[in-house]
Amino acid sequence: MRHIIAVLLENEAGALSRVVGLFAQRNYNIDSLTVAPTEDATLSRLTLTTAADDKKIEQIIKHLYKVIEVVKVIDLSESDHVERELMLVKVRAEGIARSEIKRTCEIFRGQIVDVTSNSYTIQLCGPSDKLDAFIRAIGKTTILEVVRSGASGISRGEKILSA
Amino acid sequence: MLGVNPKNIRLLQVASGKLQKNQSVMGTVQKTLRPPQSGMNVTTDKGQNIAEALSGGDILLRALQDAGVEYIFGYPGGCALHIYDAIFRQQKVEHILVRHEQAATHMADAYARATGRPGVVLVTSGPGATNAITGIATAHMDSIPMVVISAQVPNPLIGTDAFQETDMIGISRPVVKHSFLVKDCGEIAGVVKKAFYIATTGRPGPVVIDVPKDTTDPEITVPYVFPESVSMRSYNPAVRGNGRQIRKAVNALLGAKRPVIYTGGGVIQGNAAELLTRIAHKLGFPVTNTLMGLGGFPGNDEQFLGMLGMHGTYEANMAMHHADVIFAVGARFDDRVTNSPAKFCLDATIIHIDVDPASISKIINAHIPIVGQVASVLEDLEGILDAEMERQPDTPDAGALDQWWQQIRSWREAHGLDHDMHVEPGKPILPQMVVQTLYRVTQGNAYVTSDVGQHQMFAAQYYKFTEPRRWINSGGLGTMGFGLPAAMGVQFAFPDSVVACVTGEGSFMMNMQELSTCLQYRLPVKIVNINNQSLGMVKQWQDMQYGGRHSHSTYSDSLPDFKALLEAFGHVGFKVDKAEDLEPAMREAFAPALKNRTVFVDCWVDPHEHVYPMAVKGGSMRDMYLNKITTYQQGDYI
User: Fold this and answer.
1) Which end of chain B has fewer CB atoms surrounding its CB within 10 Å, N or C?
2) Model's pTM, two decimal places?
3) Which of chain B's residues have a Cβ under 8 Å away from the Cβ of A71?
C-alpha cells in the first residue's frame, strides 16, 4: 500500500544522505522524495512516498527515528491529510489538438505557463493520482517532457508535525 | 602567528588585552618540542581563566582526555600528522601503535566489550580509513560503543580526488550509529562530546569523526571549551519502560507453565547481568543465552541451558520450541537463533525487552513489547514481581515448573553436551577437548576472545562463563581476524588478568601481524589455536550440503610452522598433536613462568570433527542435526 511519510530533520550536511541510504540499505522502496527547509531554518521537512505493508512501514518509521538527525516522523496516510504534487508538462500542441489540450487542461484546473507556436507547457497541482489521470487524459503521444515534484503533504485539522 | 589568523584577531579583541602569550597549557609535556604558538591563555579582567586557545590537534587530544579516554588504538599517516604531534606533546592518553588499522578497531572494540567504556581509534585518511571499516562494522553489528577518528584531506581538497582521499562519511555510513565531518577547529570539542554521548547511550554503537587536516593545523588556535553536557532535540534514547507493559510481562511470567528466559548481548552491554540472574533465580525459570549473551547468566548455574540457536544445545532449543512464555531480554531474534521465523516457537507468548524499538517485532512479533534500557526495565519489573509473588504466593505454578524441569533434564540427558571428554592416548585431539582443557587450566577465570568458525562455537559451547564481559567475540558480523587484536585490547584494559584467544589457523592468519604489536607492548596474551588445517566451518557446510566437495576450504600443504613463526616474532610457541600432551602443554602455557610472555599453543585436532547440534535449514528450533548420524526433525529422530 502507498504511504506518505513526512520527516522533520536537522538541516545539516549529510542528513539527507543518511535517510536515503537507510532506504537503500534496508531494501525499502522510495517512489518519490521531496525536501526543503521549513520556516525554522535549522529544520528540513522531507516527504517521501513508499509502497509497503504495515509491518514494513512500522520498521521504516522505527529506523527513520534511529537516524540521529531525524526529529519527528509521521505517516500522513494513516489519517486525513492534504496531498499535493506539482507537475510541469510540455506537450505538442498543433492544429486541432491545440484547443483540445487547452480544454483538458481547464477541466483539470491546470494553467498553461508557456506557449510556443507548436507547444504548451502546462502547470498542474494536485494529489499524485490526479496528475496521473491528466497524463492519461492527454495521451502519451502529445507529451514531450514531464517533470514532477513528488508528493508533499500535511495533516488536516489541528494535528501538526513540529519539533 | 597571532594576528595572521582572523580567529585570533577576534580573540584578541574580546580578551580585554590580558593575553598571556606562550604560556604552557600542557603541563608536563616536553617543552622544547612544543611550538610556543600552539597555546595561550585567555583571561578575564579579574584574571580568571576562561578558555585556553589551542590548535585543533591539541583540542582533539584535550577533549579525549576530558572524555576520560585511556587508550587510543591507531596508526599514523599524512593527514593525521598534526594529531599525532599533539599526541606526542601530551601524556594523559596513551596511543597504541598497531600494525594494521583493522586490528586497531578490534582492539578498541574488545576494550569496550571488556570494560563497558567506549574504545577509541585513530586512523589516517584514505586506506587508513577504509581498513578500519571491517572493525567498525563489527562493532556496529554487536552494538559496541566506539569512537573512530579518521583523518581527512584538508577541507578545500575534499572532492578533488586528493592523495589518500576517500569519502569516509559515505563509506562508513551504513555501519555507524552516527558520523561527523569537522568543518572548523572550533567544532572539535563539541563534536567529541557528542560522539561519546551518542556512542554510549541508547543502543550503543560506533561513531566516526572525520577530521580534515586543516582543522588540526597547529597555526590556527581557538578557545578550548569542553561542553559539560549534551542535549540534542533529535536524539533522546528511551530509558524507562512502560509500566503497564511491565506489569503485563510480570503477569505472563507468573502464569507461565513452560517458560524460558532468553537473553542476549543487551544484558551484557546494559550491565544488567546481576539483576537478570536475581530475577531468574526468584522465578526458578530456565535461562538460555545467545552467542552475544554468554556470561549474562552464570554458565555453571543449575538453571542454565547453555547457548541456543544454530549451534545451541539440544535442551535450549527444545525448551524454546516447546515454551509457552519466552522472556526475551536484550536479544534480537537473529536468524542464527530463530531458524525459520515462520516456524519459530508457535505456542509461545513473547515478552521482548530491548532498548532499540526497531529490534522489536522486526523478525518475530512480540506480544508484550517493552522499549527501554534493560537494567531500568528489569529493575522496575523486579519490584512488581516481588509484590505480585507476595500477593499470589502460589505463583509461578510450582507443579508445572517441576514437570517442565523434568522434561528439560530428560532432553539434557538424551543429547546434552559432554563436558568431560576423556583423553584416549593415540586418538586424535578433539577440538572440544581443547576448550575443555583451557577451561580447566584457567579455572574458568580467563577472558576468552575468539575468532569465527568452528572453534568459536566450541568455545561458546564448552567454556562456562560465570561473569559478563568475559566472552568476547564477533557475533553479528562474524569477523575472522577479530580474536588476536581483541585479546590484546582486553589485555590493555586488564594487564594482570589471564586473556586467552581461542582461534583457528584460518582466522589467526588474518591478523597475525599484530604479534609484532604484542612484543612492542609486552602483551602476555595466550593464543590457543585449534588447528584443523582447514576452514573448518566452511568445510563442515560443504560436507553437509555440498556432497563433501571441499571447494577452497583446505590448505594443509601450505601452513606455516606456527611455533617457528611465533619465535620469529619474539614469542613462545608450542605444537601439540597428541591427546595426552594437550593438558601438559596448556598448563605450561598458562604457568607463572610464562606469565609475561605471548604464548601460542598450536593444537592439531581431528580435521573431520563437526560442530553439533546444528540447526536443520528452514526448520523450527527443534529441528537439529545431533551428530553425523542422527537428525531430530519435527519431533522424530531420523
Assistant:
1) C
2) 0.92
3) 233-234
